[in-house]
Amino acid sequence: MKTVRGWTLGAAMALVVGIAAALAAGGPRAQATTATGPAPAGLAKATFAGGCFWCVESDFDKVPGVVSTTSGYTGGKVANPSYEQVSAKGTGHAEAVEVVYDPKRVSYEQLVGYFWHTIDPTTKDSQFCDHGSPYRTAIFVHDAQQLAAARASLATLEKTKPFKEPIVTEIALAGPFYAAEEYHQDYYKKNPLRYKYYRTTCGRDARVQQLWGALPVPPGSSN
Predict the structure, then answer these.
(1) Quick count: other Cβ atoms within 10 Å of Cβ 219?
(2) How far, CA to CA in Å, does 104 sit from each of 69, 108, 220?
(3) Residue 55 falls in the annotated catalytic set
(4) How far, in Å, are 49, 105, 123, 127, 197 from residue 138 at the CA level?
């Protein structure tokens, strides 16, 4: 299957969309990435890398108790990276999503449990049709409590997973998170037909269902 975000069909499409957005916004300087700040009072952050951040953002927006999601880059060694830099695989960043949530409505443990069931945790530096280190899977933890919860979730999953392949998803301390260019934010809402085509042709939902036996149900959802 052709890679959509790794410089083939869909990546070219995304690049065209990005260039158009940058030009409309006044050029590359207007599209510069910036590091995000702390969560608002009473809320908390969770950060997940699960391949294409358009898809991760879409998945977590469905969770009751999630206040906002931001597509961006983390885990790398370059400040304020651009999409082009990250895609070139030279900065060390992963495409990721920063989730701001209300702990009174959804727990971190629930978010982690949901995350596992939205990804393929058996592939290294790859997710579905996207390949390379920017598409690795990872849980970036923000404190000791999140680290303990993520490790406990992984240990439980190792005993209960419905597949034989080992889990290779990384659990790492969160570093600076840089919000991606504006044209990437809420991409699935802004470009629903292109997004649906990408997600379908990339085989994300088909592989998730093959691994886990069903598509994930957001915690707290009535569906």
Answers:
(1) 18
(2) 17, 10, 12
(3) no
(4) 5, 24, 11, 11, 25
When pLDDT is averaged across residues 184-205 and rounded to a whole number, the result is 98
**Length of the chain in residues, anyone?**
223
Catalytic hit among 52, 55, 129, 202: 52
The pTM of this model reads: 0.86
CB 9 within 8 A of CB 16: no
What does each C-alpha distance from 6 to 52, 88, 212 come to in angstroms?
10, 9, 25
* Interatomic CA distance for residues 80 and 220, integer angstroms: 35
Domain 9-212: homologous superfamily in CATH = Peptide methionine sulphoxide reductase MsrA (3.30.1060.10)
**Residues paired with 70 in a beta bridge:** 98
- Report whether pLDDT(2) > 80: no
Confidence (pLDDT) at 21: 42
For 201, the token pair is 């042709």
pLDDT at 31: 58
Task: Give the burial class of 110: count Cβ atoms within 10 A of its Cβ; 0-12 exposed, 13-18 middle, 19 or more buried.
Answer: middle
The 10 Å Cβ neighbour count of residue 223 is 5
User: pLDDT tens across 74-108, in order?
Assistant: 999 999 999 999 999 999 999 999 999 999 999 99
For 94-149, what is each residue's pLDDT tens digit? 999 999 999 999 999 999 999 999 999 999 999 999 999 999 999 999 999 999 99
